[in-house]
Write a structure and sequence with these properties.
Blueprint: E1 3-7, H1 12-23, E2 29-32, H2 37-43, E3 49-52, E4 55-59, H3 64-72
Parallel strand pairs: 1-2
Antiparallel strand pairs: 1-3, 3-4
Length: 74
């Protein structure tokens, strides 16, 4: 499973999302949206965004329950 966490420097919600993923045994590849103009335009006001296998699944905050459901179904 390829997991990407779209983030930016200084984003507290992004740090919290990363910790939540780690608690579920997921190591996400972090991508700073400010390093790419297209990503910045796409995700500027909705980070953090978590993508599983190329599909954006979560934006902003997520709950443990929703993440568990996704993991059970993959």
């Amino acid at each position: 499973m390829d997991v990407v966490l779209y983030t930016r420097r200084g984003c507290q919600l992004c740090d919290e999302m990363d910790l939540l993923l780690q608690r579920h045994g997921i190591t996400a590849r972090k991508v700073d949206i400010d390093s790419d103009e297209a990503l910045q335009e796409k995700y500027d006001t909705v980070i953090p965004v978590v993508s599983f296998d190329g599909r954006d699944r979560f934006r902003g905050r997520i709950s443990d329950v929703l993440l568990k459901r996704l993991l059970e179904n993959t």
